[in-house]
Amino acid sequence: MRKVLIPTKLDKQAAAILTERGYNVVLDATTPLDEQIKNNPDAEVLIVRSEKVTPEVIDALPQLKLIVRAGAGFNTIDIKYARKRDIDVMNTPGANSNGVAEEVVAMILAAFRHVVPGDISTRAGLWEKSKFMGRELTGKTVGILGLGHIGQLVVKRLAGFETKFLGYDPFLSPALAEKLGVKLCTVEEIFAQADCITLHIPENDETRGMINRRLFDLMKPGAMLVNCARSGIINEDDLRAAKAEKPIIFCNDVYPKDAAGDKSVKDIADIMLPHLGANTFEANFNAACRAAEQTCDYFEKGITSAVVNKALPDGLDAKYQKLAFAVASLAKSYLGTGNVSRIETSFYGNLAKFGPWLTGAIAAAISAEFADQAPKDAAKALESAGIELVNRDVDNTKNYGESLTVDLLGGTDPIYRISVRGTIAENRLMISRIGNFDGLYLDPCGNHLFVEYQDAPGVIAGIAGILGENKINIVDIRAPQDLGSGRSLSVMTTNVAVPETLVAKISEAVKACRAFQFTYNA
Fold first, then answer.
1. Are 330 and 434 in contact (CB under 8 A)?
2. Where does residue 200 rank: exposed (0-12), middle (13-18), buried (19+ CB within 10 A)?
3. pTM for the structure as a whole
């Protein structure tokens, strides 16, 4: 009989489902985690909510095979160490989404109508009606950063207030955005135009501290910022400085640590809640049921679709996932038209059977949000974002060997397409073709300046001259031609990244059709 340890306040339905299926369940929401682990060293499954699962916790459970996070975010679990110990980690995405979406609505209304200070004042026997003049939500412009499960539900829940929606999501298709009634914008446009801004993006290297002074300076006086995502995405010092200069309403539900004690935002938050987003009976029940059912499916049916740290299958070299990520990243940079609406893939040779794992890397290149997806969930996540995924049949008589091609389509009128093919040669990643520029043979690692132009003498020398004037060294040059269109492509590998302002100067100087800087670190 497998033992399941649930050292958290999780709905008893999880224990009921597992017990009925023959599992030995220990559910204890009061005893400290380290004590419970010490008392249950034979546990094979650990189901947690926000508890930290560190290498020490994992090592203390020698029989552990599966960790389930009853919720979406799993940043409290050391998934890499779990993988080293051959332990799978699952999450239950979507189970808590409605609870968080409703909390956003509650905080917006409470802040606009001064619900919290009004209650305190009236209970004290005061009558400060004029002090609490509020604002109506109806007709306001709401900006949403991140239109995944939660962001889309926020749109649905606020639709009755006749609000205008602006959205930023690097991988949501224009078609789905239109269906939701959301106008896709840049982050800067949202901060400049919205009356309320709500954050639903993950915290990672790309997003940490991204909500900073530059964006706060764009906000309207009296505009509201709601953070029910992760604390690290906001630069608190910048917000503090901005609030000292103009009125900004800040509602917050997330902190670096879920625990009692002083909170660094207490002087700038108009409303503070103790991470209550998923703290509803319904969300707890949904997460409990999913955690239990996924555990049963894992052991009884071998279903691993919710595993977020799945190991590579036998026969797939990890370098091909890096290749897939590099190829898709370059295609996304080359497309340069914003959101992707369709992805077409071709996997040649032995790679064909590893499509799901390679598609996961491609999806992660399109959006950082996919980096936390289990490989086999990538196709489903792309579909939910309104991005069409087509895996084409291939002709292996072309002798492309173990290679892959990624085509991205984006834009609306006209629709733009870019196709990139890559392979591995001499144990190195290699980009072999971009569009009709064949025979490129470029190692994507490092800093690269891409300039596409109508073929003419002296263009490469002109680009090199501008780089030299700015003390940027050229490490390598590739210059394939597309004889059909009369265009050439110059790819210069440089010792440092070329600044955007300099890219623009080069583009203007050589009358480029397209120019951009691409950096990839394997």
1. yes
2. buried
3. 0.68
